[in-house]
Amino acid sequence: MSVRLCALDGCPWCEKAADALDDAGVEYETEWVEALHSDRNEVKRVGGQRGVPGLVDEGRGVTMAESANIVDYVERTLA
Description:
Layout: E1 3-7, H1 12-23, E2 29-32, H2 41-47, E3 54-57, E4 62-65, H3 67-78
Parallel strand pairs: 1-2
Antiparallel strand pairs: 1-3, 3-4
């Protein structure tokens, strides 16, 4: 997969990002992360912070965090 979503189960912002990807018909892989912020090193590597969601678009060399940014990116670039 060239698109990966780092998400936490039950996170409403993660669901918002996943819904945007689903609505745009984007194939992606979900990487479920740990509930403890201190255990979210992969998310920090992706977006520079340990908050979720985080998006990696390997095909375009894009990484980002924050659901609003992800939704905007999906709607403008991947849809």
